[in-house]
Amino acid sequence: MKKPPKFLKEYFWDIDFEALDYENYPRYTIERIFEYGDKRAINWMLRNFSRSQIIYALQKSRGLSGKSANFWALILNCKKEEVKCLNMSFQEIQKQFWPY
Questions:
Q1: 13 burial level (CB within 10 Å; 0-12, 13-18, 19+)
Q2: Maximum Cα–Cα distance across the chain
Q3: pLDDT for the residue numbered 3
Q4: Which end of the chain is less crowded, N or C, counting CB atoms within 10 A of the terminal residue's CB?
């Protein structure tokens, strides 16, 4: 298991960073960088994950904010209908729990 670089630690505050297995859990890692990453983290992501892994993470994510999901859909040239967290039905479900 490869260790992630130390500069990514700030994006994984809620887990044991030393145990982060980004090779076996690419979607989790990519989602965090989508939502919180800076330019350095994004460059690392682009070097360590394939385009198909990155697009898959975007399409299947339920934890991204609408702003981040929309931004990455535009950057990756991904149809918004294919991004789960941009679908109206998912947004309505979220509002039941967080009506703001």
A1: exposed
A2: 41
A3: 83
A4: C
Report residue 88 as tokens: 């109206």
Closest CA to 64 of 43, 90, 44: 90
Question: What's the domain count of the chain?
Answer: 1
- Residue partners of 14: CB distance under 8 A and separation at least 6: none
Secondary structure (3-state) at 13:
coil
The domain containing residue 85 runs over which residues?
A: 23-97
Residue 10 falls inside a structural domain: no
| 17 lies in some domain | no
pLDDT along the chain (100 residues), means of 10: 86 87 91 95 96 96 90 94 80 61
Which whole-number Å values give the CA distances from 41 to 7, 8, 25, 45, 64, in the listed order? 8, 7, 16, 6, 17
Q: What is the pTM of this model?
A: 0.82
